[in-house]
Specification:
The structure is a single chain. This protein is an alpha/beta fold. It has one domain: 3-Layer(aba) Sandwich (Rossmann fold), CATH 3.40.50. Helix content is 39%, strand content 23%. It contains 5 helices and 7 strands; from the N terminus they run βαβαβββαβαβα. The protein has helices at 12-24, 35-42, 62-72, 89-93, 108-120; strands at 4-8, 28-32, 50-54, 56-57, 60-61, 77-82, 99-103. Strands 2-1-3-6-7 form a 5-stranded parallel β-sheet, with helices on both faces. Strands 4-5 form a two-stranded antiparallel ribbon. It starts with a strand and ends in an 8-residue tail after the last helix. The relative contact order is 0.19. The model has no long low-confidence stretch (mean pLDDT 87).
Length: 128
């Protein structure tokens, strides 16, 4: 069974590229343009293994989304992406072992590496 990734970004072009990269890396991918869409999408599957989310979404903060989804799945791996890293409180206070930050702009290779790093930090991860 392939791991499930949820990609969330309010910029359609970024979301499309992130989703494409994650599919190439072997994930089944759910895509969402907002926090609300992401929560709805996550509710339609048994579990999300990896969340790749922009920190600043049009309808909320990506950190809140990550913590909300982790309530249901404590082993959720997370990659936060942002072009405004200096403004984010989660980065100033540190992130958990299975969370990775990737600053925009990034390459698909950098995204794939970040996804693997986040998944490697999760005990019992389905990703080999």
């Amino acid at each position: 069974m392939r791991p499930v990734a949820l990609a969330v970004d309010d910029e359609p072009q970024v979301l499309r590229l992130v989703s494409q990269c994650l599919r190439t890396e072997g994930f089944d991918v759910l895509s969402a343009h907002s926090r609300d869409e992401a929560e709805q999408a996550a509710g339609q599957v048994e579990a999300v293994d990896l969340l790749v989310t922009d920190i600043f979404l049009g309808d909320g903060w990506g950190g809140e989304l990550a913590f909300r989804l982790q309530e249901e799945n404590p082993s959720l791996a997370v990659v936060f992406i942002s072009g405004r890293a200096g403004e984010d409180p989660i980065l100033r206070h540190g992130i958990q072992e299975h969370m990775v930050f990737l600053e925009k702009p990034f390459t698909m290779v950098e995204l794939a590496d970040a996804a693997r790093q986040a998944m490697d930090g999760v005990p019992g991860s389905p990703q080999d």
